[in-house]
Amino acid sequence: MFFVDYRLKLAKRMLFNKKGSLIGAVLAVTIGILVIHVNFVIFQGLFDAIVRDISNYRNGDILVTDEADFIDKSDLSLSNWFERIPYVKAATPRLSSTAEMNMTKNGKLIEETRVPIVGVDPFRDVLASTVHETVTDGSYVFSRNSIVLGSNVAEDLGGAQVGDSVKVLVVDRWGHDQIRRFTVSGIAKSPGGQGFDYTAVVHIDTLRDMMNRPGDTGSFMVKLNDPSKAFEVKEFFLRSFPNDDFIAETIEESAEQQLAGFRSGIAMINMIGYFGMMSSAFAIVTIQMMLVNGKTKEIGVMRAIGAKRKDILLIFIFQGMIIGAIGAGVGTAAGLGYTVYAKETKMSFNNSLPLEVSYNWEKIIQTALTSFALAIIASLYPSYRATKLLPVEAMRTV
């Protein structure tokens, strides 16, 4: 134990005598860790923000559809079934179709085709979804002849405004054109365009009438108080309706196609970050080789008075541990500082989509330990080179 303490103290003394080299090595580790933290905050935050908005606007924490066609159970019965579960905040029906729209603006007829149109229950939808919060002008759907236009749809219609009249054509189940005139009650614009910016929203009963599907529902959006219980609630629902053709999916399952590409991108960015950390290890190798070359006389003296090669090896490995520990500590602190800043300032991507910033302690600890391990590994070669110096030759080079 005495020799370990002596070698550690000697390693600290030799390292801190070369403050420039120590600072350079610590900075190399710090930058490597900081790059990984910044990448995580931005790209994982963007991924989580997209998941958040898909959940809040479109799919909920659980999305229920019918394998064959439309859900024919009543809205009230399914909503009541879900809402008796303590984990469930609310459940709301949705019905979707495609419409053609036209309106007269400044004496000019403007038409827009293939506009997605969604029917909602305005009383339940405000509990299970936050689409109503994206209405920046006017109000959400409040009657059967009102329509909310996404900001892009309104722009394509020549700048539609609240109070304008819009004619909507939907093809019903029999292939017949059904035309209704609606009054624009609101314009929806979501941060990052993840909401219904390219969609029109009407009352679900009105869309059912136009599609000639009384009582039918396209999907049920279920929002939970505790999203971690999604799989449990989903499985309970499917077990409760074994004779129906229901499909129940968690947000990860229902949005898999949309999220798969983002996952691949995040994996690549993380790989680039770890390559950056490896480059910091090469910097440590270079700096420690300089330390070995600068301490040739000291190494020769230690060997001459009886220090073994193992002692020299441990001295420089201890130096790598010191560099790794300080660098991991400073880098982690800097990364956490950036994460706190991003969270408190509600950092957004491209000044539009607010990032969903979180503290992933498992990744934080993993990054710190990886950088510490790399610093030790990087010190092995310089340590080995130091042990190869013979006492006489080391003294002769001075």
UniProtKB/TrEMBL annotation:
It is a multi-pass membrane protein. The lineage of its organism: Archaea, Nitrososphaerota, Nitrososphaeria, Nitrosopumilales, Nitrosopumilaceae. It holds the Pfam family FtsX. This is Efflux ABC transporter, permease protein. It comes from the Archaea. Residues 271-389 form the ABC3 transporter permease C-terminal domain. It is found in: Cell membrane. One of its GO terms (biological process) is lipoprotein localization to outer membrane. Its main location: membrane. The chain crosses the membrane at residues 21-47, 271-292, 313-341, 361-381.
